[in-house]
Design brief:
The chain has five helices and no strands. Helix content is about 75%, strand content about 0%. It has about 80 residues and is mainly alpha-helical.
Length: about 80
């Protein structure tokens, strides 16, 4: 367990956005889709490919937003 925490800390130092995208994924996984969308949207706007994939999933599945397959494809393509 301690090694896992060290790895997460090291990864967060290398990419400070890692904690934010992990938060967005956890929000999505637990059903807080609107907040996940807000966090992922901000990260995607900075060019974070992981956030762009999450945005694609959000629009593909219509979680917290209406299903929009065109927008989903756009996000997946950007990623």
């Amino acid at each position: 367990m301690e090694r896992c925490r060290r790895d997460q800390t090291r990864d967060a130092i290398v990419d400070p956005r890692l904690a934010e995208i992990e938060e967005a994924v956890e929000l999505y996984r637990t059903g807080d889709y609107k907040t996940a969308h807000a966090v992922a949207s901000e990260l995607a706007a900075t060019g974070d490919a992981r956030a762009m994939v999450l945005m694609g999933e959000i629009y593909r599945d219509g979680k917290g937003v209406g299903v929009d397959l065109d927008l989903a494809v756009e996000w997946f393509t950007r990623a």
